[in-house]
Amino acid sequence: GEREAEQRLLPLAQDNGIAVMVNRPFQRARLFAQVKGRELPDYAKDLGITSWAQFFLKFILSHPAVTCVIPATSKAKHMRDNMQAQFGELPDANLRQKMWTDFQAI
Question: What is the pTM of this model?
Answer without folding.
Answer: 0.91
